[in-house]
From TrEMBL:
Signal peptide, first to last residue: 1-20
Protein name per its UniProtKB record: ER membrane protein complex subunit 10
Entry keyword annotation includes Signal: yes
Transmembrane segments: 182-201
Any Pfam family hit: ECM10
PANTHER family per record: ER MEMBRANE PROTEIN COMPLEX SUBUNIT 10 (PTHR39219)
Lineage, highest ranks first: Eukaryota, Fungi, Dikarya, Ascomycota, Pezizomycotina
Keywords of the record: Membrane, Signal, Transmembrane, Transmembrane helix
Coiled coil: none
């Protein structure tokens, strides 16, 4: 009994330890006005695979001519090293009271895309990370969006049909009766009979 319980307890401990030892990563988010030659640091975000929080936030300096601002980040490694991924938003959105930055994570927990939304009305409820610490700072909130698995195509799977030739869950249309199939022919026959009978009476 004891020998069978020990592996289970050990596995549970190791899984819990792996989550506890997961270190927060850090990423710098930039605001790049369309008319500007270089970006400005908008925020520094600490995040892991389940939560994120704003470590530092600096409101961007925008001129009256700045109508579009690109919000994004620099790639750190891989084929896109030195590249910049961003989304474009109206400069007026950065002046709104409640702003939310979305970090889209890939299967390895790395940021591959960002999103941004803003509103003047207060959102319902304050966002918190897994430790109960508020993820919002100076009007900027941050959320983690995990990648969702796409549909899986099953190849070489036989199609199962019922005795009526229908797939499971597919409604089977009831077979029509003789009258339902040929009612129009019966109506046409009756009309012809009336016409012929009426024509014969006039001849007499």
């Amino acid at each position: 009994m004891r020998s069978s319980t020990l592996p289970t307890v050990l596995l549970t401990f190791l899984v819990g330890l792996s989550f506890a030892l997961e270190q927060d990563r850090s990423i710098s988010i930039f605001a790049w006005p369309q008319a500007s030659s270089s970006p400005q640091t908008l925020a520094t975000i600490a995040y892991n695979s389940t939560a994120a929080k704003v470590s530092q936030y600096t409101a961007p300096r925008l001129s009256d001519s700045d109508s579009i601002v690109r919000i994004g980040f620099h790639h750190r490694d891989g084929a896109d090293e030195g590249g910049y991924s961003a989304i474009a938003t109206s400069a007026s959105n950065l002046a709104k009271k409640y702003k939310t930055l979305l970090l889209h994570l890939n299967s390895e927990g790395e940021v591959y895309h960002v999103g941004f939304r803003a509103r003047d009305a207060s959102p319902s409820g304050a966002s918190e990370d897994s430790n109960g610490v508020a993820a919002e700072k100076d009007g900027l909130n941050v959320e983690v969006v995990k990648i969702q698995p796409g549909p899986v195509v099953h190849l070489n799977r036989p199609v199962v049909v019922s005795r009526d030739g229908a797939k499971p869950g597919e409604a089977v249309e009831p077979e029509k009766t003789f009258f339902q199939k040929y009612w129009w022919a019966l109506v046409l026959f009756l009309v012809l009979q009336i016409v012929v009978t009426g024509g014969g009476g006039d001849g007499k």
